[in-house]
Amino acid sequence: PFGHIGLFAEQIDYWQRIIQTLSPYSDEKIKVLNLFAYTGGSTLAAAKAGAEVTHVDASKTSIEWAKQNAELNGLQDASIRWMVDDVMAFVKREIRRGNKYHAIILDPPSYGRGPKNQLWKIEEDLPLLIESIKELLSENFLFLHLSAHTPGVSALTLENLLRTYFSDQQNFITEEMYINVESGPTLPSGT
Length: 191
Description:
5-stranded parallel β-sheet; two-stranded antiparallel sheet; globular
């Protein structure tokens, strides 16, 4: 009803990067945290590469959809922990538990509500989340992927936010997401 079909074609190249980045570590216990995980494309890419994935989304319907996608892709037995939870609340609990991750994936909505009606606004809450997740990084951290589809949130805006909290990091890739169309213009689809 709100226009989402559950597949985000602009993420396909990134899913390939997840697989390429994580596959060399398939014999190790690589832990990936996917926040705002929706229908699970990034989760499935990480699981395909052999990672242990924690998939977090506030929507039980989306989690069920992601589980179906895992089954359809032969990943029903992959190491995926499915969590229906508010992302901020989950991250705070993971920090208290001392859990660490080798990779973190974030694709936050512009606006949303958690399972207990917690309010999410990207402009207000994303900086707090980025600051918090720094405490979840393992010593041999591999990557953080942050994407957004919010009008007015540019690639430079996201890079500046990340540089604020990860000033010790050297490698940033900032790019626009898009969908190539065979018979028409390339469609911008986020950053």
